[in-house]
């Protein structure tokens, strides 16, 4: 494993051929990214393989009693099947993006929007608010939105290649 200095930066680890070792802070978000990736990919696949999907979307949307964003429900009710497919493919795309770490900040923003829309509609009536399953997912995307996927990701590979040519992917 790599060595870190007192500032949290990396030092060369002689056991790894002189490559910088990942820092603890870089590794800290990896389990969260993988968990969210698997969860969202599974949710999308689960919807798409359900024999009652997307016909069940209309009943689900009509069963929501009190939403904080009723306009969002109204929008979804204009075409529940299309909305269902948009959510399912959105979850699948976010899940695959998180697992691969490709365009992670954009993926995190998409996951945050999906979680926010669920919280403001489906689980808004759950009380107290901290019983809602969507609030932790919403908050879990925030650190990934801020930090991106710095290691073990396609973003890291792209950054490394761009660094060699003098271009940067982020900041």
Description:
By secondary structure, the protein is mostly helical. The protein contains eight helices and two strands. α6 packs antiparallel against α7. The longest helix has 21 residues, at 80-100. The chain is elongated. The chain starts with a strand and ends in a 6-residue tail after the last helix.
Short summary:
The chain is mainly α and 171 residues long. It has helices at residues 24-28, 30-49, 56-62, 70-77, 80-100, 104-120, 134-147, 154-165; strands at 3-4, 10-11. The two termini are 27 Å apart.
Could you say which overall geometry the principal axes of the C-alpha atoms support? elongated
Q: Approximately what portion of the residues adopt beta-strand conformation?
A: under 5%
Individual helix count: 8
Overall pLDDT metric: 87
Distance between the termini: 27 Å
Low-pLDDT regions: none
Structural class: mainly alpha
Computed Rg: 20 Å
User: Order of strands across the biggest sheet?
Assistant: 1-2
Percent in helix = 55-70%
């Amino acid at each position: 494993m790599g060595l870190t200095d007192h500032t949290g930066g990396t030092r060369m680890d002689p056991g790894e051929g002189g490559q910088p070792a990942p820092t603890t802070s870089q590794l800290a978000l990896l389990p969260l990214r993988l968990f969210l990736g698997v969860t969202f990919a599974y949710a999308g696949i689960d919807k798409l393989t359900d024999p009652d999907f997307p016909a069940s979307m209309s009943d689900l949307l009509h069963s929501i009693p009190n939403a904080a964003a009723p306009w969002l429900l109204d929008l979804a009710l204009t075409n529940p099947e299309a909305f269902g497919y948009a959510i399912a493919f959105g979850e699948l795309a976010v899940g695959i993006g998180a697992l691969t770490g490709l365009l992670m900040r954009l993926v995190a923003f998409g996951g945050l929007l999906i979680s926010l829309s669920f919280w403001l509609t489906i689980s808004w009536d759950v009380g107290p608010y901290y019983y809602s399953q969507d609030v932790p997912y919403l908050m879990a995307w925030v650190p990934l939105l801020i930090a991106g996927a710095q290691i073990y990701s396609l973003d890291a590979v792209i950054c490394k290649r761009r660094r060699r040519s003098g271009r940067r992917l982020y900041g």
